[in-house]
Amino acid sequence: MRTFISRIIFAIFCLFVVGVPVYAAESIERFDVRANLNQDRSATIEERITYDFGVSDRHGIYRLIPDVYDRHGGNYKLHLDIQGVQLDGSDVPYKVQRKNRDVEIKIGDPDRYLTGKHTYVIQYATNRSLNDIDGNVEWYWNLTGNGWLVPIKHVSLELVAPSSTRRACFVGVVGSQDPKCVWKDTANFVQASSTRALDDGEGMTVVFEFPGSAFTSLSTWDHVQRYLQDNGWLGLPLLVFLGMWLIWYRYGKEPKGRGTIVPHYEEPRSLPPGLQVALRDQHLSSRAITATILDLARRGYLTIEWQEEKEGGSFLEKVARWNKESKFVFVRVKPTDAGGLHDFEKIIFKGLFDESDLVVDPSDLRSTFYKDIEKARESAFKELKSLGWFPGNPSTTRALWITGGVVVAVLLILASDQLPIQVASSIMCGLIVGAFGWHMPRMTKEAAVVVEEVEGFRWFLSLTEEKRLQFTDAPAKKPEQFARFLPAAVAFGIEKEWAHQFDGMLMSPPSYLRGASLNGLTALQISSLTRAIHDTNTSSMYASPSSGGAGSSGFSGGGSGGGMGGGGGGSW
């Protein structure tokens, strides 16, 4: 008897303890949707949600409706227009705000609590819910959304629209193709109803196909306008371009010099080839480094001596050997602390030779000389700055702007939804910043005048014989002149043009280029020799050591949770 009474008490206890949350659990008794699809492609939708709060004290419900979708690599927006909300037939306070890609409608009075059953009516409109697919028009709509945290006992749809050619219904979790619904056709609308209750996380989706003539057609331009309207990111590169152009025009546009360029027959302002190129191009190029080495040799600090196991042969055979073997060495003539050098030249000279070195093979400098090149570049622009020709180092300015371009691209990507069109626009913005930044270093007015003089000197070195004859004050052609200005021609990349001015003139190689196979060469052949020197230096001295590296339609694949609409909600 005692055992029987104990069981009765335990059963009553379980009924109260377990039964309370079941009784108090919230649910949606009915989720009824009425939709009108108009010939102009607009749609008005009314959701009538009968929500049972049970014994829970709640202010109301919130409804999340997706408003932005991914399409063609960008955004597709419904532009939902919330037209009204009611509670039990009367107006009720509500707040509409965007949360990420959804519209949230938060309904209720924060000073009022509700329990039991209440009916909410939400009305909204959109003109973007129809899809054009293969000449037909499709309405693919998630009626309830799959994001509700409570079960939905019954779902229905009343659709007022032109006659459809196909229709389908899906019930269940996202991706489900379970057609648990019934259809009813009337003279005024089509009705679809679920045949089972929906658990939390489940929803009901419908899809209708209409002939293309049932609705106003959209032109290609209409689609383009919509795409541009939905993807403001496409206009961002244009804004960045305009902004960077204004910055460049104000702070980066080069001043004008005298406005005229005339031939110069001497080095402008006695500038060595390296500084001429650094000023003109705002960069000390690898050719300028080679030209500096050649100019140091011309001025007696070193010689470049060719060493070949095989001598003689035609010029073409020699060129072939130079290109394949290019065996030459640098021979130091003056001590590394010799005077008469610009600071950047001292760095290059000491980079070629240690104090104890007299002869150096370019291949021995493979892992060290590239560091000296960077130091020389920095030193060259320090000198240009000290001359009052640049406010700062152009390379540093460019590096900062390019870094800024990378930062802009990364920040924009992180701030976006990272859709392909947004990523592409972000990268384009970064490239625009970097491209303008490359041209942002600005020289002074005086420097612009010197650049014109450098251009005049370069013009003289590149003159054809016919053009040269037009200048009566041009100096006479001599082998010494060819040897003197050859490093500058190499720096500008016009050594062949310079050599052509001495066509037909036999000459000994410049005194700073030595080798048994170099005798009896023409100026053009000597210019080819300097190209071989530059190519060898580039491959063996200039490059830093490399490091290894490790080695759709709702009828096609549609289902519950697909299409537009949807979302979810809950109570608060």
Distance between the termini: 49 Å
Helix content: 25-40%
| Residues in β-strands, percent | 15-25%
For the largest sheet, list the strands in their spatial order.
7-6-10-2-1-14-17-16
Overall pLDDT, averaged? 86
The main β sheet shows up as: 8 strands, mixed
Structure description:
This protein is an alpha+beta fold. 37% of the residues lie in helices and 23% in strands. It contains 15 helices and 24 strands. A hairpin with a 2-residue loop joins strand 11 (130-133) and strand 12 (136-142). The protein is elongated. It starts with a helix and ends with a strand.
Describe the secondary-structure layout.
Layout: H1 2-24, E1 27-37, E2 43-52, E3 61-66, E4 68-71, E5 74-77, E6 81-87, E7 90-91, E8 94-99, E9 102-107, E10 117-126, E11 130-133, E12 136-142, E13 147-148, E14 155-160, E15 166-172, E16 181-185, E17 190-194, E18 203-211, H2 220-230, H3 236-252, H4 273-281, H5 286-298, E19 302-306, H6 315-324, E20 328-332, H7 343-352, E21 359-360, H8 369-386, H9 394-415, H10 420-438, H11 445-461, H12 465-469, H13 479-492, H14 495-500, E22 513-514, H15 523-542, E23 564-565, E24 568-571
Parallel strand pairs: 1-14, 12-23, 13-24, 19-22
Antiparallel strand pairs: 1-2, 2-10, 3-9, 3-24, 4-5, 6-7, 6-10, 8-9, 11-12, 12-18, 14-17, 15-18, 16-17, 19-20, 20-21
Helix pairs in contact: 3-10, 4-5, 4-8, 4-11, 4-13, 5-13, 6-15, 7-8, 9-10
